[in-house]
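ESCALATION

Customer reports they have been waiting on this structure for their group meeting. Please prioritize. Original submission:
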Amino acid sequence: MERTAIDKRPVDGPIRVTATGLAGDYVCDTKYHGGPFKAVYAYQEDEARRWEAELGRELPPGWFGENLRVRGVPTSDAVIGERWRIGTTELEVDSPRTPCRTFAVWAGEEHWVKRFTQRGDTGAYLRVVTEGSISAGDTVHRHHIPAHGVTVRDLFTGRDAERCAALLAQQEDLSPAAAQMARRVVERAGMAEPEDKVTT
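Update from on-call: job pushed to the front of the queue and completed.
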């Protein structure tokens, strides 16, 4: 297998979280992964369990390449721009994870990219608003949930152009990736992007 940083393992004790991610984390392909808008990747326990049932094997925390495996908190259905307080850290939901060839090789499942895409359980990339520390077992406190209502899944699947237009109008600090995805949804629907957000 080619070198990959997908395989993550649980750790004990607090982990420092900075603007570039978790201490000790490693990113191989910095063109598509990592950076301030993809500093942390979270995946939901229920979504992992659904894949376990379908694939017939255990998918332990870290298998999806996630830094955080969370329970009772939506990741794919989190709202773009909502914030999470975990430990002494504050994170902001930024964008969906797009499956790549490396992930497909790692998974070792037939038509993995297509299946992962069709399911839409992408998990969420988050940026770090406040640096701090996170420990296993910390509670995730959701707050600052934007009114536009666009979820990670909405952005990934390209549905609800009206809400994506509202996202572009209301969310001034969108990452380039999230803004591009929202614009594509709006353009496919034949809608005009809000004038004050049009780029030249």
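Sent to customer with the following note: Residues 15-156 form a domain with the M1 Pyruvate Kinase; Domain 3 fold (CATH 2.40.33.20).
Escalation resolved.
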